[in-house]
Amino acid sequence: MEVKIKDLHPTQLYLSEKKLQDIQMLYQSVENPNINPISVLAIGDRLLITDGQHRAYQALLAGRTTISAEWDKDGGDELYHLYAQVCEERKIYSVLDLKNHILAQDEYEAKWYNWCDGFNQAAKQLLGVKKDAKDYSDR
Length: 139
What we know:
Layout: E1 2-4, E2 8-9, E3 15-16, H1 17-29, E4 38-43, E5 46-51, H2 53-61, E6 66-71, H3 77-89, E7 102-103, H4 105-127
Parallel strand pairs: 2-5, 3-7, 4-6
Antiparallel strand pairs: 1-6, 4-5
Helix pairs in contact: 1-2
């Protein structure tokens, strides 16, 4: 399915400069790049990005208004809802709002993965999720 990029809500606080450069090179290498669909989850009237924040951001920079998406069937709906709430608390409401949150790869890994580890542990306790529940920070 095709979704409007402006209608997507991020669930990630930062973007990796390196990942964006890699996707940008793919966009520049061919006229119609074969980009994997992003994964989305509908919560209320919002469409949350569960995988593909970088692809959505780069598509927007490339002048696209829509992007190919598929429904996320991996679970973790409650956790992604919490991620989206944290993004909104930090004034990240859309993919474009991530423009001031692009970090060098080492800083991205340190900040994002460390934040996710702590947040996921707290969320699992809050949500009563099993300790062996899937970690979504790498998406």
